[in-house]
Write a structure and sequence with these properties.
The complex is a heterodimer. Chain A is mainly β. Chain A has no helices and 11 strands. In chain B, strand 4 and strand 5 form a beta hairpin. Classes of the chains: A mainly beta, B mainly beta.
Chain lengths: 111, 114
């Protein structure tokens, strides 16, 4: 089955700096790559996604890049703000087996 | 515009008991998926239903079962509860079969098995 590795497990950045979270996957047939943000005690919230026919997608301060050849994708957050503090999960889908999630990155924004 | 809803919010059960969790998808969505999230981990896929049929199953024992109703709502059943079943159970709603479509999560049901 699909295997998703996510790094780093914890990331601490100064407010206003950029944060980058990286994921790799194993199944070359996977074609959908969403990112979720989960605040403590709340549901995972879809923040951005990308499909295999696109290399990059941007939504305001958030961007995702995909390298299908290398089987890795990354989340980029620019001009970080205190409200960006949360756990971020990457996920991968390729068929009817639902999403396979990474283990999560705890993003800490230092004031 | 209601999002995904789940009930109950919290549940405490004893080992060996059975539990039923409920989910209502976003209006117009036809696919429901269930995930188990253990503290400190990412959600793990249990089932996916689309048009009332099981379309995918994760690596969970047969004690876990689910169904989807004609109104697209869904139930997850867990029999013979074990301590290790304690987790947040999340339901996700998707417009179509969820492989390449956005999945939106409900608030979850926190199950504690004692």
């Amino acid at each position: 089955g699909e295997n998703v590795e996510q790094h780093p497990s914890t990331l601490s950045v100064q407010e206003g700096d950029s944060a980058v979270i990286k994921c790799t996957y194993s199944d070359s047939a996977s074609n959908y790559f969403p990112w979720y943000k989960q605040e403590l005690g709340k549901r995972p919230q879809l923040i951005i996604d990308i499909r295999s026919n696109v290399g990059e997608k941007k939504d305001q301060r958030i961007a995702v890049t995909l390298n299908k050849t290398a089987k890795h994708f990354s989340l980029h957050i620019t001009e970080t703000q205190p409200e960006d503090s949360a756990v971020y999960f990457c996920a991968v889908a390729g068929g009817a087996d639902g999403l396979t999630f990474g283990k999560g990155t705890h993003l800490i924004i230092q004031p | 515009d209601a999002g995904v809803t789940q009930s109950p919010t919290h549940l405490i059960k004893t080992r060996g008991q059975q539990v039923t969790l409920r989910c209502s998808p976003i209006s117009g969505h036809k696919s429901v998926s269930w995930y188990q999230q253990v503290l400190g981990q990412g959600p793990q896929f249990i089932f996916q239903y689309y048009e009332k049929e099981e379309r995918g199953r994760g690596n969970f024992p047969d004690r876990f079962s689910a169904r989807q109703f004609p109104n697209y709502s869904s139930e997850l059943n867990v029999n013979a509860l074990l301590l290790g079943d304690s987790a947040l159970y999340l339901c996700a709603s998707s417009l179509y079969l969820a492989g390449g479509y956005e999945q939106y999560f409900g608030p979850g049901t926190r199950l504690t098995v004692t």
